[in-house]
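Cross-posting from the chemistry board since nobody answered there.

I work mostly on the small-molecule side, so proteins are not my area. We synthesized zinc ion and want a rough idea of how it might sit in this target. Sequence and SMILES are below. Is it possible to get a predicted 3D structure of the two together?
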Amino acid sequence: MKPPLLEVLATRALLGDGAMGTQLMLAGLEQGNCGEAWNLTHPERVLGIQRRYAEAGSDCILTNTFGGSRIMLNRHGHAADVAAINKAAVEIARDAFGSRPGYVIGDIGPFGGLMEPYGDFTESEVRAAFVEQAGALVDAGADAIIIETQTSLEELLIGIQAAQEAGAACIIGSMAYDVTLDGSTFRTMMGIDPERAASFMEEHGAHIVALNCGTGMDMTRARDAVLRYRDVTSLPLMAQPNAGQPKLVNMKVLYDETPEQMVIGVGPLLDAGARIIGACCGSTPEHIRAFRQSLDAHQDVNAPRARR
Ligand SMILES: [Zn+2]
C-alpha cells in the first residue's frame, strides 16, 4: 500500500508528467478530434505515452481526460461514453506504472465555454458535468483530482465542489496564467492573479495549489507564481509550465524549449516551494527524464544527513 499523496508531499517533492495533447498528436490524433475517446478506441496508444512518462520517472500521471466532461465530449458525439472514457483513463494511467506505486491524478479541464450571462451554459449544466466526471474518476480509483487550466474562479469553484462531492481524497486547483503585454506580471485571461487564486482555493478546501500551461509562463515565471502562492498559503504547491512558447511552423504548432533548457528551472522551483513539478504543452518524456535527475540530485543535497 502506498501512502496518500498529501502524506508523501509532506516528506518529499514528487515528479509529475509531461504533455498529453501534443503527444497524442504525435501518436496520430488529428487536430480537432477527440483525444479522450482514444481511452476506448486506442487505449494502447494512450498507454504507450503514459508508460514512457512512468519510465522517465513520473511519480504522478494525469489521466487522459482533459476534455472528458459531458459538455466537452458532447461536441464530438461521445456524451454517452462519459463514464466509460473516464474509467478507462484511470485504468490506463494505473497500468502505465506497472508494478511500481504511482499516483493517478484524475484530470478535469475547462468545459470549454462561458457560463450565463456571458455564454450559453448554465451553472447547473457545468456543475452536473463536473460532478459526473469527478465521480467517474474517483470511482475508478483516482488518487486525486486536478481541476486544471482554469482561468475563472467561478468555474474553478464548481470543479472543487464536484471533486468534494465525489469524495476525492486530494483536490488540486490549477490556474493558467498569461504574461501581460508589458511583461511586468501575469494573470489569468479572466484577470485573476496568483494571490487571489491561492487564497480562494484554500478558502474553498482545495489541498494543492497549482499552475499549468498559460502564455509566456516559462520555468522562471512559474517560480514567480509559486513564490507568490507561498506568500499567501501554506498548502503544497505544484507547477507544470509549457515547454516554451508555441510557434507556428509549416502550419504545425511547435514548442521548442529543450529538456536541457527547461531543467535549469527545476532546482529554483523546488527552492521556491513547489512539491510537484511536471510540465504542460510541448513537453516530452525526455523533459521528464531530465527533471527526474535534477529533482533527485536536489533532494539528495538537501536531505537530512542523519542517514548513512
Ligand atoms: Zn498546456
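Reply from a structural biologist on the board:
Welcome over. Reading the output above for you: The first helix runs from residue 5 to 9. The chain has 13 helices and twelve strands. Happy to explain the C-alpha cell format if needed.
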